[in-house]
């Protein structure tokens, strides 16, 4: 039931993005970006897939421990994987930090070469980008006030105000569930702030970031019951098989060499 609604939501949102985004690897029309740049300009600076000295990772650095700011620097699990990709490609890594819901359009406008943003593979996104092999398994979790007894599972979200990050799978799930009032935020930490202020009743977000957001805070908690299992993968423009192959090789090599476990340990504690 919920799943079919979720699918419907995915299809609807996909239709919206498709009308703006580009599908192929050909030169895009100059589409204005929020910064007032055009895709064409960005393409000049970062010859995606070409012989430029940089390779550009697009992300939304509001998703600890996958990507977040440590002072001026953007760090995290995904950044470590991106560094390995850059090394393999013989290029220097550059990171574009932008709103999560603009990443796919940005990729197709050649503002970046790939997206590494804890991005879950969905059927709809697969129509707009090519995904690497998955590199991480995740699920959606619910954060509530520590003393809340009215919300125990996803079903209890009906009739509640639920905060999500715009354009995420959490957003798609909640927006596609009848009877739930969804409140969309640019960044998940803002949703959590409103939960603490009593402006929303719950926040739906991926498991690891959920853990980080409640860490050290005794007025909020993550519910035990997860829902929807998802897989994170890296996205490239459709048809960019050369880069996709490089990325898949890197993921495989990281796993084989034990480097993946090392990075895992660095951001999640002991390897599974
Ligand atoms: N996994 C979710 C999705 O793909 C959320 C990802 C949010 N990532 C971020 N960097 N803010 O929709």
Concise structural overview:
This protein has 272 residues and is an alpha/beta fold. The chain is built from 10 helices and 14 strands.
Specify the overall morphology.
Answer: globular
Number of domains: 2
Major β-sheet profile: 6 strands, mixed
The CATH superfamily of the largest domain is: Periplasmic binding protein-like II
What distance separates the N and C termini? Answer: 33 Å
Number of helices: 10
CATH topology tier name of the largest domain: D-Maltodextrin-Binding Protein, domain 2
| Poorly predicted segments | 1-49
Tell me the β content: 15-25%
- Counting helices, strands and paired strands, the structural category is alpha/beta
User: What's the rounded overall pLDDT mean?
Assistant: 85
CATH architecture of the largest domain: 3-Layer(aba) Sandwich
The whole-angstrom Rg is 19 Å
Describe the structure.
37% of the residues lie in helices and 22% in strands. It has 10 helices and 14 strands. A hairpin with a 3-residue loop joins strand 2 (62-63) and strand 3 (67-70). It starts with a helix and ends with a helix. Residues 1-49 have low confidence and may be disordered. Arginine binds next to strand 2.
Write the layout of secondary structure elements.
Layout (H helix, E strand, L loop, with lengths): L1 H19 L18 H7 L8 E6 L2 E2 L3 E4 L2 E3 L1 H13 L2 E6 L5 H6 L5 E2 L7 H4 L3 E2 L4 E10 L15 E5 L3 H7 L5 E5 L2 H9 L5 E5 H8 L5 E3 L4 E6 L2 E2 L4 H17 L1 H10 L4
């Amino acid at each position: 039931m919920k799943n079919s609604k979720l699918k419907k939501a995915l299809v609807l949102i996909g239709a919206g993005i498709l009308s703006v985004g580009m599908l192929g690897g050909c030169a895009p029309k100059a589409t204005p970006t929020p910064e007032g740049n055009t895709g064409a300009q960005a393409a000049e600076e970062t010859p995606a897939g070409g012989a430029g000295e940089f390779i550009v990772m697009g992300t939304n650095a509001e998703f600890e421990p996958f990507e977040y700011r440590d002072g001026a620097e953007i760090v995290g699990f995904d950044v470590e994987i991106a560094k390995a990709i850059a090394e393999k490609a013989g290029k220097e890594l550059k990171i574009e930090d932008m709103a999560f819901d603009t990443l796919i359009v940005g990729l197709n406008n050649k503002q970046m070469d790939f997206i590494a943003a804890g991005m879950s593979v969905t059927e709809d996104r697969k129509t707009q980008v090519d995904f690497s092999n998955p590199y991480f398994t995740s699920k959606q979790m619910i954060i509530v006030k520590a003393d809340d007894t009215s919300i125990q599972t996803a079903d209890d979200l009906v009739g509640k105000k639920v905060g999500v990050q715009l354009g995420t799978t959490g957003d798609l799930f909640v927006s596609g569930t009848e009877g739930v009032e969804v409140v969309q935020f640019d960044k998940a930490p803002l949703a959590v702030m409103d939960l603490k202020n009593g402006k929303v009743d719950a926040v739906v977000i991926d498991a690891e970031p959920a853990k980080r957001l409640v860490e050290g805070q005794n007025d909020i908690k993550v519910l035990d019951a997860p829902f929807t299992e998802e897989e994170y993968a890296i996205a490239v423009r459709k048809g960019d098989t050369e880069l996709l192959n490089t990325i898949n090789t890197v993921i495989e090599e990281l796993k084989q060499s034990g480097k993946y476990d090392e990075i895992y340990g660095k951001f999640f504690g002991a390897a599974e």
